[in-house]
Amino acid sequence: GFSCRVYLLVRRECEILNHCFDDVEQFMTRLQQTAEAQSILNQRKKKRSKKSKKTEDQDDNLLTMKASPPSEDEFLDIFQKIKYSLSLLARLKPFITQPDAPELLHPIFLPLNLTVKTTGGPALGASVVSPAMTTGAISLLQEHLTNEDKELWTSLGPNWTMPCSQLSVSAPPYSPVFLDGWQPKAYDSTGRPVEDPIESQHKQDVLRESGQQDYARQAAEGTDEVLPPEGERLYCCSYDFVARNSSELSVLQGETLEVIESSKRWWKCQNRFDQIGFVPSNILEPLSAVNNTDIKPTLLFQRAEKSVQPTPLLIMNEELLERLAGKRGSVRPVVPRTADTSVPLNYHSPPAEVEAWLTTKGFSQQTVHSLGILTGAQLFSLNKEELRTVLPEDGVRVYSQIMVQKALLEDVHKLTELEKVMERQKLKIDLNSENDVA
């Protein structure tokens, strides 16, 4: 159904965003290790001891390897992933909370600032054309950046501060390649190819701009309204469209809408959730015209009780790694993320079950590895402030998931207690009945 497809699309894009964040953070850790290794090398050169020269030379070789900075291509890759993350964050803005999209901007600009400084200024970052910025990303940054972050942003020039449609050069398509080898699924549950979300957003931006231009031109010329054909009220969407304000309506390709009012190039439509808003008419086709095509429209009057809106997968900061690395003792194997939500967790769960439960909840690998050393009882004993201290970015969402799991366990406990009470009551009634017969 519609809500399931929305959930799967949003979850897929959240996971792409999470992997961008993971790669950026891994790169920041590498820069830090490079700086530390270089610092140790510099100190050793000043305090060179002839006695242990051979041993120190061997150590120096290892340090020299660690002190070697990333290549220019690797820096460009990180700039691309940060740009991509900003556009993806704007696209996911309606679906993420605690923290919301504006609150995640500064954590993204911290590594951007470090990367710009490490490359000697904004020149290298400014040269990155692809991926081009979406209109939504530009609006998000204009409205919510701090003055300091806005100064950094504008220093990167038009490739960062102008949307794709306004660039003087064409931006080739971009598809991120992640360090851990993960790739988003290329096909949806119906076997239809899933387009890159930012490429899809660029197309939506073009549709919106052309619709707004038509609307302005018609208003200036006094052109009559564009009315739907007589008797046609049900229309199928030929493209995805994401609303950018409260008057527009987000729709998915293949979704069926009821047109309730046509005004210029924007038609007021109602979906099967009774949500009403404007949609550009050039993405709507009469339902009767698409019945024999590959597009499978969803039924208009299949009402859904609720729609699921996943929260985003968040960036993990270095403090967590430093505070918890010592407790792990060794590096754990990567556990692939899964959509399975049936993994149990209770006060008696061993660390393996805790790790599996955190994985199914979509937390980053660093979070899973760091908290996966705890038992269920230890995890449940952590309060919000403790989690916030150790996990400044993820702590609130981890706490929220713990509270939900506790509530589920309490419900099970209450049900078990109720069953016991009912069983005792039944025994009492049976015993009274036996006494009465006697």
UniProtKB/TrEMBL annotation:
Domain SH3: 230-289
Entries under InterPro entries matching the protein: EPS8-like (IPR039801), EPS8_2nd (IPR055093), Eps8_SH3 (IPR035462), SAM/pointed_sf (IPR013761), SAM_3 (IPR041418), SH3-like_dom_sf (IPR036028), SH3_domain (IPR001452)
GO molecular function terms listed in the Swiss-Prot or TrEMBL record: actin binding
Pfam family name, one: SH3_1
Record field: compositional bias (Basic residues): 43-53
Stretch list, region Disordered: 39-67
Localization per Swiss-Prot or TrEMBL: Cytoplasm
Keywords, in A-Z order: Cytoplasm, Phosphoprotein, SH3 domain
Single biological process term from Gene Ontology: positive regulation of ruffle assembly
CDD domains: SAM_EPS8-like (cd09540), SH3_Eps8 (cd11764)
GO cellular component, one term: cytoplasm
Main localization (coarse): cytoplasm
Superkingdom of source: Eukaryota
Protein family per UniProt: Belongs to the EPS8 family.
Protein name (Swiss-Prot/TrEMBL): SH3 domain-containing protein
